[in-house]
Specification:
Keywords: Metal-binding
Strand content: 5-15%
InterPro entries: HARBI1_dom
Helix content: 25-40%
Cofactor: a divalent metal cation
Order of helices and strands: HHHHHEHEEEHHEE
Number of helices: 8
GO molecular function, one term: metal ion binding
Pfam families: DDE_Tnp_4
Number of domains: 2
Largest sheet: 6 strands, mixed
Radius of gyration: 25 Å
Shape: globular
Amino acid sequence: MKRNNETVEGPGGLVYTARLPLSSATLNYPTDLIRGHCTKIRSPWRALPAGKITGIVLAVLRCDQRPGDLAGGNGIHRTTVSRWVHEVVGLLAARAPRLDRALKKITRTGGGIVLLDGSLIRTRRRTGDANRKNYSGKSTCHGLPLIALTDDRGRLLRVSAARPGRTSEITACRHNHLTAHLRATGLGVIADLGFIGLDDNDDPDADPAVITGYKTARSRPLAPARNCRTPCWPQSAPRLSTASPT
C-alpha cells in the first residue's frame, strides 16, 4: 500500500463544500470593509474576489477551519489565508467603539446602568512557552477571555480585546480601567459574583460603581436583607395583589 504524504494544498487533496449559517448582513459588512481597504492601499487585485475572501475568513473564525484546508480547496497558499484572517480581524477591530465613548453614549440616551459579563473562547492547545499562559484554571481548558458590556436591554456595546486564558475577569477589567470610566460618566454596572472586589473605592459615602451579589458559605448564611429569596418587607405589611379584578 502506497503512503500519500502530500499536503492538503497539493492537487491530490479531497475538496468538499460546506455551508455557513450566516446572514447576508454578516457577509456584506466585512466584504465592504475589504473593498474599502483595497481601495485605500491601492491594491485592486486579489487572488479571489472580496466576497469569497470574506467566506474563507468567516469559515476560519466561525467554524475553526484550518487555513491549509481552505487554501487547498481554493487554489491559494496557506499563508495567504492567514494573512486575510489577520487583515479582516484588524479591520473589524478598528470599527469597535472606545470604552469611554460607549459609556458616554449610554449617558446621553438617559441610561443609568450597564451590564457586565465575561466569557472564555476556547482555542487549541499551543506549543512551547505560549501553552501555559493560555490555560484557564477556572474553566480547565485553553482559551482567550473576553469582557462584554451591554445596556440594560442586553444590546451589545463593547467587547474587550482578547487576553491570555490565565487572566481573570477582574484583572482584564482593571487593565481597561473600567471603574474609572464608570465613575467619570456617572454610570453603574451590574455583574455576577465573579466580579466581586472589582470596585475598590475607599470612600464609604460614594455610590458603588460595580453592583454584584453576595457570596455565602455553609457556616455563614446570608442575612435576610441580602438574600433575594427572602422578602425584605415585614410579614404584617400588606402585599400588592397582581390578580385582575373580577
